[in-house]
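In the lab's daily routine, each protein ends up as an entry in a very long ledger. A line of letters takes care of the sequence, but it says nothing directly about the fold. The fold becomes a row of whole numbers, each drawn from a learned catalogue of backbone shapes. The protein below has been through that process, and both of its lines are reproduced in full:
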Amino acid sequence: MKWPRRFLAFDLGAQSGRAMLGEFDGRRSKVREASPFPNRMLELNGHLFWDIWCLLDEVRAGMRESFKVRQFHPNPTQDLDRAFERFSGL
């Protein structure tokens, strides 16, 4: 396994979310915020729901932003295309 290993995670909260970039070099880990975004709520029949379609758009945007960081991944276009292919059925 080559070091450093880099990861992308999403933190979804009640009012906001964010894409987080992580890196582990075999001994230490680093985490930084890559793309913050609001979490919009929908009201339906007196109940609040997450706007899942908006969240999906924000996750996609966070992926795009993360792959712009050259050190994040050696071949961002190829892997981003693969990730979007998985979501294309939605």
Q: What stands out?
A: The chain has one domain: 5-87. Residues 81 and 87 are 10 Å apart (CA to CA).
